[in-house]
Amino acid sequence: MVQPSLLRQTTTGLRKATTTSPAHPQTPPYPPSQPSTAILAAALSQVPTHGFTSTSLTLGARAAGYLDVSTQLLPRGVFELVLFHLATRRLALKDEVDLGEGEGEGEGEGEGEGKKMGVGAKVRRLALARLRANAPVIHRYQEALALMSLAGNIPASLKELAALSDEIWFLASDTSVDTSWYTKRGSLASIYAACEVYQSQDQSTDFKDTERFLDARLEDLRVVGGSISDVGQWMGYTAGSVVNVLRSKGVRI
Amino acid sequence: MNNSISRLAGRRRLLQTGRLLRTREPYRCFSCAARYAQQTPPRSDASKTTHFGFETVAESMKESKVGAVFSSVATSYDTMNDLMSLGIHRLWKDAFVRSLNPGTNPLTASSPSEITGWNILDIAGGTGDIAFRMLDHATNIHNDTTTRVTVSDINPDMLAEGRKRALQTPYGRSSRLDFLEANSERLDMIPSNSVDLYTVAFGIRNFTDKARALDEAFRVLKPGGVFACLEFSKVTNPAFEAVYKRWSFGAIPLIGQLVAGDRDSYQYLVESIEKFPTQEEWREMIQQAGFLIPENGWENLTGGIAAIHKGVKPLKSS
Fold first, then answer.
1. What residues bind S-adenosyl-L-methionine, as annotated (chain B) (predicted)?
2. Minimal CB count within 10 Å: which of A205, B75, B171, B179?
């Protein structure tokens, strides 16, 4: 009986120490001391006007005190800028999203005092917060999506998407370690990707349509997931019954 | 197999200049060659040595020997490159220039006075292959008509070839293209912190002191400037390497003999490729000179036959 609370304590401790998902390296991918980070950060502020283009990179290099030629520090060119946007927005999630927990108590998943948020609600809030973080560059976001979909860039893009999905489930205090670990991350990743594509064409104010779209997809997931588990339950029950009926008829199973 | 090739090659007296310095060799039969080799005293004037292909020569000698090689190949340089690389050297050079993306669109400048273009130094670029490509790229891709290239080469014959070719390009008589006869280990005529981009394509292999050339590159580059090197390197796939070695040691000297009438120069070429450091070692050397290395530091072309190495000079040298 003592074990669960112990376990919970360690996860809380771990979570405080790392603050991002422990599946990923502790050192941030873009250390601020690196010259390439300075160029990328300056270039990202040019994206609203110049888009995800080499012009942004060049202007970013100039703003950071480098030469036009210094963009050679970024061998993948503009795609580095896209990855930088994705990674920094992902890492910012943990600081920017208030999940309604008090100072530091990471327990109470589901049940507990009053109106704690469920894991599902946390996932929704995190996904929405991540989508809203695209707002400053959303009018140029199709350029980023186009770059991400180039054949050579797909592996890196998928890796980043998987990292985001993992981060969201982690921050939502999901601790499952069964096959649902994979299905949860896979389904959230596909929902999020669909939402981003939808968002890049969203004309509504404050991304209301995107929010509705996200809710609809999460609802779909809930319905499909529920049906699958219902079907599984039914099949398990039926199979058990069949075996019992056969046994009662004298078949040796 | 490689061993036997290298032994044979090592014994061959390579070049005219080398030959003049020695007294004529006596008749050498197979049975007396070993004895002869033992009797030849080591060169006493060689305080420091370097390699010239598979031969070891005094540092003071390498420059003149390399000079002789390139003087003799200058006129047939392009034909030979096409034959030896099956035309692929053009693709490498294109890829090199495209990855560097030289030139700045004047529209990105906030004020007209800001439009200065890049100052590019193309080392060992005698025939202008890289220089013309960079100027074309800047002009056609970025509408940049201010970027300048200084072609530097130690060999006047190669430079003469480049000057001749420049007349067939739009840059021949413009101020955007300059020629400079200089040793890249002593670029005294070029002020420090003045160059945006330092390129060397298929040249650094022939330098006597590569570390010193790197230091000199570091000096002339502006902070944030880029050192870029296209050079033969090591093939990564062993099966492909076997084929490649056959081609380079078997076919290339033969092609040189048949087409350019100069076997020894091309024998030197393939040996010097063999002697050049691996991708990792070369990256280490670039890093030692103080450059920042972007990502893993190199990009292999055609399975590692050639590789592009880059380094960026940091803003504040620590």
1. 127, 153, 183-184
2. A205
- A65/B contact by beta carbon, under 8 A: yes
With respect to residue A209, please indicate whether it lies within any of the assigned structural domains: yes
| A141-148 helix and A78-96 helix, angle to the nearest 10 degrees | 110
In chain B, where does DSSP find H-type helix?
Answer: 2-11, 16-21, 30-39, 59-73, 77-85, 88-100, 129-142, 156-166, 210-220, 238-246, 252-255, 263-275, 279-288
- The whole-model pTM stands at 0.76
Tokens of A118: 């469920």
* Structural domain harbouring A132: 87-248
Q: Which two tokens stand for residue A79?
A: 């795609």
CATH 3.40.50.150 fits B74-110+117-233+276-312, yes or no: yes
DSSP designation for B292: B
Residue B225: left if φ>0, alpha if ψ -120 to 50, beta else—which one?
beta
Is A75 an interface residue toward B (CB < 8 Å)? yes
pLDDT tens digit at each of 253 positions of chain A: 334 444 433 333 344 444 556 665 556 678 877 888 999 999 999 999 999 999 999 999 999 989 999 999 998 889 999 999 999 999 999 888 877 654 444 444 444 444 677 888 899 999 999 999 999 999 999 999 999 999 999 999 999 999 999 999 999 988 888 888 898 899 999 999 999 999 999 888 889 999 999 999 999 988 998 898 899 999 999 999 999 999 999 888 7
